[in-house]
Design goal:
The chain is mainly alpha-helical. The chain has 3 helices and no strands. The protein is globular and about 30 Å long.
Length: 59
């Protein structure tokens, strides 16, 4: 599962812990294309430039 590890590491800087868990699940389920999904995710996140909300305010 090197693709899943790569995808997780590449997207780790984006989103909350809950987002990361959800992405890990998606990358695992779609492991053959995990790298491509991660690349698109990073590209979208960088273009969107959303401010990350502190996790304690989401609860």
């Amino acid at each position: 599962m090197p693709q899943v590890i790569y995808a997780d590491e590449r997207t780790a800087a984006y989103g909350t812990a809950n987002c990361r868990r959800m992405r890990q699940h998606i990358f695992t389920e779609l492991s053959p294309i995990a790298g491509d999904l991660a690349a698109r995710y990073v590209k979208t996140a960088e273009r969107s430039s959303f401010e990350q909300v502190p996790e304690e305010s989401v609860r």
